Amino acid sequence: MTKTCKAHTAQRRRRTGKYKDPQSSWTKTTKGWEYGRKVHMSLDAQNLLIQDWMTTPAAVHDSTVAKAQIDSGQGYKYFLADSAYDSQQIYRYIFDCSSMIPVIDTNKRKGVSLEKQCQARWLGIQLRQIYAEKYKNRWEIERTINILQEYFNLEYIWYVRNRNYDAVLGLAILAYNLCVMFNILNSRPHRKVADIIGCY
């Protein structure tokens, strides 16, 4: 979640209905109601490089960009995702359009009784259990987001010239990837970016 204006400004614009960014919207998070854009990223869990990214209004569900993320992961062996991606349609798309093994957290609100599931989701739940150890790597995306917010100011981007938010996000992600590649080439821990950022 990246915020495209201050909270009090968003509240004022909500009352008047005069928003400045048509690609931002309200959504309820663990922190309460927030206004901005949602950033969706695909990460290589081995070298920790961001492979693809896109933004949507904050209210848009993660699953709506699933097909694009699956397409960007062609050539990888596993597709790791949280329970927002646990659906028959997403499993079917992975099985039909890629060679990846889906390791997707099970949405318990949909039920986990294997006898009651459609074929693709039934198989997906089985694969989640078989490859449970692989799912631990999914948290690498959460760590990456935390780094982007802490060192690249990705969470608050309201001071942007001409409101070109996508350019700011793209530059932050490019800078992160360059730091990771520098670390790989110099045999440093991949996520050691604080000292690099501190040079500027």
TrEMBL record:
InterPro entries: Transposase_11. Pfam families: DDE_Tnp_1. Residues 1-17 have a biased composition (Basic residues). It comes from the Bacteria. Residues 1-28 are annotated as: Disordered. The keyword Transmembrane applies. Residues 17-178 form the Transposase IS4-like domain. The chain crosses the membrane at residues 167-185. GO terms for biological process: DNA transposition. Keywords: Membrane, Transmembrane, Transmembrane helix. One of its GO terms (molecular function) is DNA binding. This is Transposase IS4 family protein.
